[in-house]
Amino acid sequence: MIAGLLALVATALAGPSTEPGTELVIVLDNSCSMIEPHSTKDQLQKPAADPDRRAVLGAQIVDALAAGDDRVQVLAFPLQERTGVLEVDGPAAIRDIGPASGTWFTGPLERARQILVGSSKRDRMLIVLSDGAPTDYDQPARGRELLGLDQDGRAFETLVLGLFPDEEPEAEGFLRALARFPEDYHRVDDGGAVVSHFTEGYARALGSKALTGTLSSGGSTSFDVGRYVTEVLAVTTTVDRSGPYSAELKRGGRTVPVQAAGDNGCTHGTRKNPALCNPPRMHFQTWRASHDPARPSSWSLTVPRAGGDVAYGVILRYDLFAEVDATEPAKVDTPAKIRARLTWNGETFDDAEFFGKDGFTAEAIANGERVPLTHVGAGVFEGDYTPRSSRPVPVVVRFSNTWMQKLGQGTLSVVKPPPLELAGTEVLDFGSWRGGRWATTSCQALTLVGNHGFDHATVQFDFRGLPAGSSLELAPNGQGWQVCARAKGCCGTLDTDATTALVARATDAEGSTAERTVRVVFHVDRTGFLKCWWPWICALLTLLVVFWFLYGWIRPHDFDEELTVRIAGSERQLSRSAALVLREQPRGRRGFYRNARVSLTHAGDFVAKTRGAAFWIEATGSGETTIHLQGPLEVMDRRTKQWKPLTPEEAADGLRTNIVYRLGDVYYRFQ
Q1: What is this structure's pTM?
Q2: Whole-angstrom Cα distance, residue 11 to residue 318?
């Protein structure tokens, strides 16, 4: 934890500033859940997140290390009130921060934003140390709003540590929201692991190389400090409550004086943790020593005596700064060079060995587009970027390796192009043609030659004065468009006039507009009557033929299947004569457009044709018939028992079954 906190005072600056140094604000969770067991909303018992007050110890160490151009402000929750903020100034006040009645985030976050956004320091950093969800708001987005993370750009860096001995998904979501970027949040489920989380999570972003580890009593470690290191910062602290210890930092065998020392004791306790401030306590020592960046040196850190393990952190401070060279304005739609460099001691940093190891990379982010940067010599890095508008392009350059991340910000100015213009075709002449049964078209290529920036312009088309029944259709075609004049099927005569035109209107990324009117000329002769209508005529004739055929096949009538006739030479013989089925006689079944019909001669014979027949019988409906007479057919009158001629009216009514008919000497009975 301690070595990680040291990284904050070893901040590598991310760009030009008005004042050197780091503005560091620590929002320290001093709620009761940090130091004593507590119950959740679901009545679950949770242990204290930081019963040894490591967070307080870390804030003390950062405050002790801050010197010269660096400035540290510790903010805590108000002890009783729901609103406001507890501003803690000085090591004694930090050491004795009391427990608050709730996790009141609103006041500290508002104050942190005010300090950081208003600071003129070159670097601005926010640290949040907490174990729980806010008491005074219930939406994670509220925290980002209080800090202005989505409004103020990269006004300051963030580091959020969630101290969770157990699962706390709800609280973790609130803390994640306080980090500007996802990688700015670190979860710590073991208080003793805060050192590695803090150091490894932010050494790259702060641009300082951190060395961490643990020593036992009598142990020591050595490390080399190379070129470009301007300052060495070191801290040691007991891992647990093990009481005072002694540690020595030496450079080339010479002892470096201790800058500050102390412990995390306090003057208060709590009901659930009465031994909070009692010995043994956690102790710390800090060192801060300048270093000649041109002369590498050897250092050692020794722990002669300790009651337990001692954690250490060493930060090698590199005063490297990233800068964007944006002095040459770019042109719209023209590749431009983004130049960037690292500076050290006010001069361009040019060390081929440094650029070639530890996974060193360089890139620029221009309007959200990533641009790889290549070292072109003399410490200058370049990459190609093509602006699409004349608006100034915000550029962030990032130099990074396995232990460093340096950010620089700048703006690439872009020269505004001349106003958009359209040129090219003045008349689209589609010629003359005759309309067809279906829609007909005539096509031409349209090319609009524009000035600089036209390739990225949005072009819209409008049509004026088109004769009714016609239209214009456009489709992209290479560098231009294919325009087709379309006449609807079976059209009348179509003629354009002086008002018929296609209007092209272009708008580029700058909002500049240009318009061009292209006259449209075509003539279409009306479609001939037969050419237009012959399919319909053929369809109608076909329909009539089909109807005629179906009618002739379906409409004719048939005799009843059981209708028979007996024929004999006398009435008495009728009962002994055979019953003849009419359907089985010549023409006794219906034909194409012909009803079923049987014809009988004077001799009582069936014939196929009506010529020469004495009479014939024709089916005229469902079971109905009619009799056609060509001879004196008689019928027996049942009332008078006399024969009488069959009248035409009676013949038209058809056959009567079980009635005897007579024609000469031949008798008939239909059944």
Answers
A1: 0.58
A2: 8
